[in-house]
Amino acid sequence: xxxxxxxxxxxxxxxxxxxxxxxxxxxxxxxxxxxxxxxxxxxxxxxxxxxxxxxxxxxxxxxxxxxxxxxxxxxxxxxxxxxxxxxxxxxxxxxxxxxxxxxxxxxxxxxxxxxxxxxxxxxxxxxxxxxxxxxxxxxxxxxxxxxxxxxxxxxxxxxxxxxxxxx
Length: 167
Description:
The protein has 167 residues and is of the alpha/beta class. Helices cover 34% and strands 36% of the residues.
């Protein structure tokens, strides 16, 4: 058993225990003309919150970045009457590996909108029209670094939004 633990630790030291970012789409056109977004942050797992990942800190950071870039945060009533119904979703999935004192972490920031299918003029569906992701491992003591990664992804969204909606 001792050799198995040593082998796992050796393999893990070969990996960078930080988060890596992935860009899914390069198309900013889906953001053109949007007056703002409704923001939904999925609930963070209780063990991650216990170890320092704060739902409030993430919500505050997201709101601050969007507002400071002049991107309007829509109320529920405002976004429901918009044709595209733009929802900026933020999810942070964590899996705790307690015996190794780290978390596997996946962060996803995506914009969902109603879109029309080209072959059916009356059919609308929900689709992800913009997305950024980050994956990696964070130590229990540095789990709050996920907030920094969320901020980077929201900054990317803000930059893409402003590229097609100059203020």
